[in-house]
Amino acid sequence: MSDGEQPGDPTAPVPAVRASDAERERTATLLRDHAAAGRLTPEELDERLDGAYAARTVGDLGALLHDLPASADADAGAPAPPVRSPAREAARRRLLHAAGQALLVSAAAVAIWLATGAEGSFWPKWVILVSAIRIAFAAWRELGPDGAGSGRDEARLGRGGSERTRRQ
């Protein structure tokens, strides 16, 4: 390393190394993405694609991309996928568990009604109604604005919270 060169990333490809077909295809894909974003004219794209497929070294491929932003910047306009917090995922699991319990209780009530002759009014409707109301309240408690899955710190809000929450 002479003339003040800084050591580079040891995992970065060396420019004099021969390019593989996969690296040529990756470069061609990046060039097409940049052209689709309006950074390259169709003529420039054709020239650079010809250069990409004719490139012998990784350095030749890098020269084709030197004046273009990194691929992460090229995709900056795309919306990021939603990120679910661990607290919200845990709340969803608890709600799913509660819904499963309600379904089992309702199914048992219908089975008892059928086993006793299925005569008279359909009384399991009341069990199903109460279960549905219970699930609705649980969903609001778990996933609502101030629910357990909202990620808000209950101790910090002055509502007590668990001992583990108070220690954080």
Task: Please provide a written account of the structure.
- It is a single chain.
- The chain has 168 residues and is mainly alpha-helical.
- The protein folds into 2 domains: 21-74, no CATH class; 86-167.
- The protein is built from 7 helices and no strands.
- Helix 1 (21-36) runs antiparallel to helix 2 and helix 1 (21-36) runs parallel beside helix 3 (58-65).
- The longest helix has 30 residues, at 86-115.
- The model is unreliable at 1-11, 153-158 and 163-168 (pLDDT under 50).
According to DSSP, the number of beta strands is: 0
> Number of domains in the coordinates?
2
Mean pLDDT: 79
Shape: rod-shaped
Strand content: under 5%
Radius of gyration: 31 Å
Number of helices: 7
Low-confidence runs:
1-11, 153-158, 163-168
Portion in helices: 55-70%
Structural class by SSE content: mainly alpha
Please give the alpha-carbon distance between the first and last residues: 49 Å
Largest sheet: none
Quickly describe the structure.
The protein has 168 residues and is mainly α. It has 7 helices and no strands.
Q: What's the topology here?
A:
Elements: H1 21-36, H2 42-54, H3 58-65, H4 71-74, H5 86-115, H6 124-143, H7 163-167
